[in-house]
Amino acid sequence: MILRLRCACYNRETLNKQTSKFTDVIKWSEFQIVWVLLALVVVESVLIFYLRAPWVPYAAAGLLIVIAVLAAAAVYFSAKKDRDTSVERSELKGIFGSINDGLIVYQADFRVIFFNTAA
Questions:
Q1: Which of the four, 5, 95, 103, 115, has the lowest number of CB atoms within 10 Å?
Q2: Distance (Å) of CA 20 to CA 10, 26, 106, 110, 118
Q3: Which helix (H) or strand (E) holds 105?
Q4: Three-state DSSP class for 75?
Q5: What is the mean pLDDT of residues 54-81?
Q6: What pTM did the predictor assign?
């Protein structure tokens, strides 16, 4: 009896699709704060582990405060954008729902996004 195992290998096309999704995400303007936070965490780690000067705890605490403020700002702006998007979406649903004619909204690949009751 011969056992054949399937390898969960990825071909180049699948890897390119996944890599392109990742590179698209890290290029978003919303993602830039992550790079700043990452740089600050690296600086903080270097300060704590490699320098033994008496001012290091104060600098580390200052950097932690900066990191916390930047993280809070990122969460605030993300929530604001989400709230604005939901308000716009509900306004459009109200407008489209009140139209007496049938309305169907679809994407370029013909996937239906929205339709009103008349449709």
A1: 5
A2: 15, 10, 25, 23, 40
A3: strand 104-106
A4: helix
A5: 82
A6: 0.49
